[in-house]
Fold each of these.
Amino acid sequence: MNINMTEYESFLRENRIKVNGYLNKVLWFFVLTGPAIAAGIKGGIFKDITYTTCILISAVLIVMSLIHLYLYHQFPSKTFTCVFALTTLNVLIAYMFYSHVSIYITWFLVPLLSLLFCDKGLYFYAVIMNFILMMTSAWLSAPYEAALRPEYDSVMAYFVDLVSGFTIESIIMFSSGYIIGKLILDYFKGLFEQHNRIMDQEKIMAEKMRLLDSMAEIYDNVNLIDYETQTEQSLRDAEQKKFGVDLNAQTHTLMNQKLKNQVMPDQVEDFLNFTNIKTLRSRLAQRKLISADFIDVVSGWFRAQYITVDATEDGIPTSIIYTTRNVDEEKRREENLIRISMTDEMTRLYNRRCFDEDLMVIKESPLAADFVIFSIDVNGLKTVNDTKGHVAGDELIKGAAGCLALTVGHKGKAYRTGGDEFMAIVHTDDAEAMRKALHGHAKEWHGVYTDEITMSVGYAAYKDHPEATVDDLEHIADADMYQEKDRFYKERGIDRRQH
């Protein structure tokens, strides 16, 4: 058993003090035994008892009660205080028996009272002392009793008959008392084990509530949903009032019924599915938390999160914390980081990584009829770098990027995939017109270090190659670009290998 022995011993000590207090009252009550017997003598009930015996019983009990009262005040939980009370009662009963007061069941009063101490040692002492005094009293009173009973041939015959019955009764009472005492101890130990479990649970709950209070300061909304009591409670409210949750008719908490009115219209359905309390427990089973992000029409992005507080042994949540927190700034930083990771630093066009990821997404679905891939390469960049420096070369790359971005516009996305290499993914029914537009923008461009920019442009339209894959279209666009580059260098009479 999981018992705090220090607390258990403290309980036994406090119990011993209480029992000693009650036993002292019992001793004072037994002072009336003398007057009670005297009344019996006067009434003719006790013919073989003298008034002297009555006085002696009361006088001795007064003295013993005073001694025990002193011990109780000075040593309330000590073993000898308990032993003194039990011994006093045993001696009283033995003397009454010796004085010819007929006693049978009363012999077992003291062992019975000793069970109240919840102490095996005191119980064994009470039983043994009781049996010794019982035998002694029986032996001392045997001659007198045998003389009154002609059916016995001798004192020994009477004594043996009497103690045989006493012995059998003592064994029965001892066994019964021992079982009762063990049951009492087991019961108290069980209570202490349960008490310790409750205290541990209270500590855990207190710690959880402390954490919940801390969470309440962090989140915009904090709602405690208890499936066992079927209630919801806002931990941010000063009153922290609990509201009933009807799981048969209710799919959403009061908080979410209000929040749904602030969610972007195109996200309402997803929000309602995520916050459905009828399916929540199964979705959260064996998990610590689930979360989802939505857009508030007023304050921007917010994160809704369900956290398991308590669960059954098989992981089904019984109490859950529901929180919402504004993450608009976080989302903006996240989007900015994604944009930086997907953007070419020099040209501000999308980079090669973005191009590859976009192609992977495109490959997952059938191509649109107006899908086109463009491949673009700047002409003469090596010559500009060698003759005018890399600053001029960078200006040429930026100029090409500007012309490409201006041409693509909102029809698609433009990428810088290498030093002087660019790609574009667009949706247009006239790819040739876009190529001419790009060349037109290039002719109009003039830089600080270089007056002219020319680009070789190739493309592959899905409508012209309906059997081609995305990878095939990319290769076709590259081949088309290189054909145009060859024409450009031939027209200008330039050795391409040197450029």
Note: The radius of gyration is 50 Å.
Amino acid sequence: MSQNRFAVHHLSQCHFFLLALITYPQVGGAEDNTPVQLPPGRRQLFLDDYAIGSMENLTRTLHQPEKRGAVITPQRPWEKYLVQTRSVPARDEERNVFQLWVNAIDREPDFMAGPTYFESKDGIHWTRPILRQFEYGGSRENNILAFDPKLKWPARAITNVIRDPHDADPARRYKGFLGKGRDRRPIVSHDGIHWKRLNVPVLRSSDESNLSYDPVSRIFIATLKHGGRYGRAHAISTSRDFEHWTKPKLLYQADAWDQQRGKARILARLADPKLQDPVYNQPSSYKVDIYNVAVFRYEDLYIILPSMFHITGPRPNGNVDGFKHIQLACSRDLNSWTRLANREPFINTSPVGDAWDTMVMLPPSAPLVRGDELWFYYSAGKYRGTPTNPPPHRGAICLAVLRRDGFMSLDAGDTPGTLTTKPFVTRASSLYVNIDSTGGKSVVEVLDREGAVLAVSKPMSENKPRRRIAWARGDLADVAGKAIRLRFHLRNSRLYSFWPDG
């Protein structure tokens, strides 16, 4: 029988956390022989049971990314309050630089802010190119973008930016949304610096939205802030040309279980001296809603990163105080979602100290793939409600790094565990795995539909994010075009993904 356990693995820059084991019902104990399609070269993860036929003695584990701290902090006068982003860095291959779009705010309550532009060679050290587009403090020597200098905040915010590698028109290589009020106006650019508005209808949203591009289906995915049962919720709209968008439909909202668990989290936080307290605390106001939602294609599925806002009380300005963390969910069709990890945080707030993300965090539109790692650039805040004698700066852009495919793994300990896939047909000549068998042993078998062994791999005892299977007997190429299953034997190992290729 499969072990009905769920583990959370948390790595932090300066702090150590216990490994938490949480009861989590796990599908896969009974064998499922439903055939599936596994496209060559597309990695199969274990966030859901799409490719899993059966499992025994395996534990599903959530892995939280390792925090690397702030990579962009307020340094210029127009940034002195905070900097935020909802974009993933884009790669300009011709100039060999990463590009990032950040909204900077210089003071509260006026929120005189502007979209700003950054570049980096390594994704860690960011520069502020002088654009000379916008006059600030009597000078144009700054990195502030000016779509229209006459626009006021939030109408001139450039909220979400992506780079589209498939548009045949170079003038539309970059796409984004203008505005952070009630409207999102589609805009395009040839370089990410000089923008023009498309003569198309606006998308309606409150002050939060997100945007990503699915290069497999070639669709644009926008999430738009709307009202839900418990407050903030988010709708989804998609487009194939960035001009005609589907009617927004409800995507993600909090439910009754969120309220129950949210109140428990608020009370636990208030009792923990290592965590920062909210400025405003009114128990009758406790609730959870969804502040922002990122949706992006990753390999063969969609991943969603909701920012869960735990509200602790009203603020004098009419808004509310509280804290946020980022959770994890997945989908195969952008219609139905599976909330993962017993709703435990994927990226959580940090303890009080020199960290920027002690209270607030907002997800990027997608991670940046860097070799065998995923880089998450997220917006972090030291507080939500303004405390007495607040620090001069309240927010920064932080980086958290995850092993590629490393959202969740199937783990075996001293007791050997097995995973058998559902049947699939492949013409690939090679099989790859993302596996950590350091101190352990793993073997892969190729089976026919009836379970007869057709090929056996050589044992694996190393940590490899991209390990090509070497065969001791038989070969994957020998069964090209036939329906097969894979059976993984794991001991003291973690399996993150597998994929046929070649």
Note: The chain has two domains: 5-64+413-501, 66-403.
